[in-house]
Amino acid sequence: MSATSFQPQWRAKPLSTVLLFMCFSCSATDITDSAHVAGMELQLASAKDKCELRVLQDAELKILSLKPEPPCFFLRRGADEPQRFSYPKVNIDYVLLVAGSALNERQRTLWNLPEDMQCGSMRQGVLVKAGQIEITPSVIKDSVACKNTGADEKDFWAFAHL
């Protein structure tokens, strides 16, 4: 192969990666949260009144629909990175939890939650298995989960062992 025939291919890959990243970062109407996990960029977005998980890995974009309604966010426990647990016995590298379906005023009052605290009433699991992302078919409904207070490990375990 001559240098002239190789060079356009070499330049095309970095350019396509840059263009894909630009598209990834701006294509949703509202990015509500993001994280880096196992070499992947994960973004939660609101698109057409639905939550979706956008996964950028190896210059490929994968979009997965979620059941919670916007705004959606990863659960954290006082840290910048989302809470996650590993379950090697069931071949799960990581389980993360996404919460959404914003609480109404009555629920906030009942739980004595301040307005500036981001909370939702539905949770869904995101599984990382052998470098791939899966969304759990099951959800936890009618409960309260707040972005910065996280969840108990038993909830992560339950999603890993469905």
From TrEMBL:
It comes from the Bacteria. Residues 1-28 form the signal peptide. Keywords: Signal. This is Lipoprotein.
